Amino acid sequence: MSTRRSQSYVIVGTCFSIQVVYVGILFTFGLMFLEFEQAFGWNRTTISGAFSVFLLTTGFVGVVIGKLNDRFGPSRIMIAGAVIHGIGYALMYMIQAPWQLYLFYGVLAAVGFSTHDVLTLSTVARWFTTQRNLMSGIVKAGAGVGQFITPVLLASVLAVYDWRTACLFISIASTIALVFLAPFLRRDPPPAPNPTLSNEPPVTSGTAASETGMTLRTAAATPNFWIFCAGQFLVFFCLMAIMVHIVPHARDLGFAPGRAAQVLAAIGGASIVGRIVMGGLGDRMGGKRALTISYLLLTGNLIWILFIENPWILFLFAPIYGFTHGAFFTLISPTVAEFFGTRSHGVIFAIVLLHGTIGGAMSPIIAGLVFDATGTYQPVFITLSVLAFTGLILINFVQKIPVSPAESNLLPCSQEH
Hints:
This protein has helices at 3-26, 29-40, 44-72, 75-91, 98-113, 115-127, 132-160, 163-181, 216-220, 223-253, 257-285, 287-305, 314-340, 345-374, 378-395, 405-408.
C-alpha cells in the first residue's frame, strides 16, 4: 500500500472521528433543552434562542475558518477550536441566567464547532476526486455515529449526575479527543508516485498548484452559487427545527425522557446509512440528482409527521428522516467541489453553509414561538413541508458551468503538513 494511500485513509479516519465528537455533542441539545426547562422554568422560545445564536455564530465564524483553511491548513485551527469549544462547555457549569447560556453555548462553544465541517469536508474534497462523494459520506457517517451513541450516553449520565456535571464531562472529553486528532489533518495530499496507477491526480507538494476552479468572486456571479445558498437555507431550516424539537415533541406525545432520546439516536443511526448510500450515489449520478432524491424524501417525510399521533410511530419516521438528514449533510461539500472546483472550496463551502446556519438558527426559535403560542407543532410541520418542496424545485435550476483556463490558474499558497 502506497504512503499516499495510507495517508488518505488516515485523513478519512481522522475526519470521521472529529465528526463523531462534534456532531454527537451538538445533537444532545434536545436533551439539555428539557433540563434547562425543568431547572429554570424557561420557555421553549428562550431555550431555542440559544441554539439559534449557536448556529448563527457557527455560520459567520465558519466563513473566516474557511478562508484561513484555504491559506494555512486545518491542524492548528482545529486545536484552537477544540480549546474554545471546551471552555464554552466548562463555563456552562455555572449557568444561572439565559444570557450565560447564550454566551457560553451560543458563542464560545459555537466558535469551536464552526471548524468541524469546513475543515474536515474541505480536506476530503482536496484529497479525493473520483470518490469524493463516497469519502465525504464516510466522514459524515461519523456524525451519524455521534448522533446515535452520544444522546444515549448523555441520557445515562443525566440519570446519575446533573446536567452541570454532564457539561464538564463534555468539556474535558471533547477537548482531549479533538486536540489529539488535530495533528493528523493536513490540507493537501502529497504527489502521487505514479499518476497512471492512481485514482487521484498528481499534486505538487508544498503548493496547491494542481487545484482548479472558480474564485469566490466568480462563483458568486453564477446562479448556481445562490441556488445552493438558498437550498442550504431551506434544508437547515427544516432539519434543525426537527433536531431541536423532536425530543420535546416525543415527550409531548407521551414518551419518557429515555425513550425520547432513543428517537434522536434512531435518527443518528439511520443518518449513517444515508451518508454512505447517498455519497456513493452522488459519485455515480452527480450531486444534483442525488440532492433531488434527498429533497423528495424529506418533503414526503415532513408531510407524514403531520399525521403522527402515536409516539411509537416516531420510530418509523426517524429512520427515513435520519437517512435524508445524513444525505444532505454529506452531499453539499462534494457538490460544491463538483460545480466550483477546489481552488476556493473552503470559503465557498463556508458561505453556502452560512446561509444554511441562518436558516437553521431561525427555525428552532420560530418553532418554539409557535409552540408557546399554540401548544402544538402542527403549523411548524406544515411550513417545513412547504419549504422542503421549494428546495426540490430550486435544485432543478442548477446547471453545469465550464471553468475557463484563466480561472483555473492558481497561485501557490501556504499549507500545513
